[in-house]
Amino acid sequence: LDCWIKESDGSSWPQTPLPYPKKLISQVKRQMGWRRFTLWDLPSEWKEEVLEILRREALREISRPLQGIYHKNLALMRSLQEKGGVVPQIFRQLASFLLIQRIEEGVEGMKGEFEKNFKQVLQVYSQMEKIGSPPAKGRLEPLFSDLIFEETKKLIELISLERIRRIDMLIDLMVKWGLRPDLRRAQESFYPLWKGLIGPNKSRPLHIHLRRLAEKLGFKV
Fold first, then answer.
1. To the nearest 10°, the Cα dihedral for 139, 140, 141, 147?
2. Which of 24, 87, 136, 144 could pair with 181 in a Cys bridge, judged by C-beta atoms 3.0 to 4.6 Å apart?
3. Does position 57 have pLDDT exceeding 70, yes or no?
4. Contacts 24+ apart (CB under 8 A), 127-132
């Protein structure tokens, strides 16, 4: 990933058909000069964002042919399992690689369409258990830590039973899967709201749900 920068002298870029990459680079160097900037010249926060975009794109490119192999052999592997046979380790590794990506996509999707993507994550996790290759806790815990934090921030912005329910569902799922997400950021976000719960109107229905959520987040109720 390279880029060239040059102060404009009023001239426009030649309007010619896009050449092959090597010729394009030579043309850029002639027009812009030889000072080249790479990914490592970016500020750290931009660098991390660009690297994440490139990582996702690389994984998508790798996944395309592997998806075909996985689906082509899925029925055979299921038949082996049903008859008590041994599913080859390489197939379990392939399934784990592909399905964990779907879990990551589902967790990211929950920030928009919660219900649909929550169900997808449950289904994919179940598939991984069936092939004897559940996702590593170290892969899931950061994903859900971030998601619970994001949902807690939304709750602070607009308190509703639906948003409380979402966080409840996520925490309950983590308990079920034996995960220990890092809730510190969610706790810090929730704390001002928690302070407001210690006082009058504690019996109001919304306050009761919030107090139950506070307990799940680790506050002493």
1. 120
2. 144
3. yes
4. 127/95, 127/99, 128/95, 128/96, 128/99, 128/100, 130/81, 131/77, 131/81, 131/87, 131/91, 131/92, 131/95, 131/96, 132/87, 132/92
Asked if 16 contacts 49 with a C-beta cutoff of 8 angstroms, the reply is no
pLDDT of residue 119: 94
Residue pLDDT, tens place only, 139-159: 889 999 999 999 999 998 888
Distance CA 78, CA 57 (A): 30
User: Residue 8: which region, alpha, beta or left (left: phi > 0; alpha: psi -120 to 50)?
Assistant: beta
Mean pLDDT, residues 15-20: 54
User: What average pLDDT does the structure give for the chain?
Assistant: 80
Band (pLDDT 50/70/90 cuts) for residue 192 is confident
Residue 138 binned pLDDT confidence (cut-offs 50, 70, 90):
confident
Distance CA 102, CA 125 (A): 9
Euclidean distance between CA atoms 221 and 219, whole angstroms: 6
Torsion, Cα of 206, 143, 124, 49 (10° steps): 120
pLDDT computed for residue 16 by the predictor: 55
Q: Which helix (H) or strand (E) holds 136?
A: none
Q: What angle do CA 119, 124, 128 make, to 5 degrees?
A: 150
Strand partners, 36: 4
CA 142 to each of CA 25, 136, 139: distance values in angstroms, whole numbers, following the listed order: 40, 11, 7
- Quote the tokens at residue 16: 């010619």
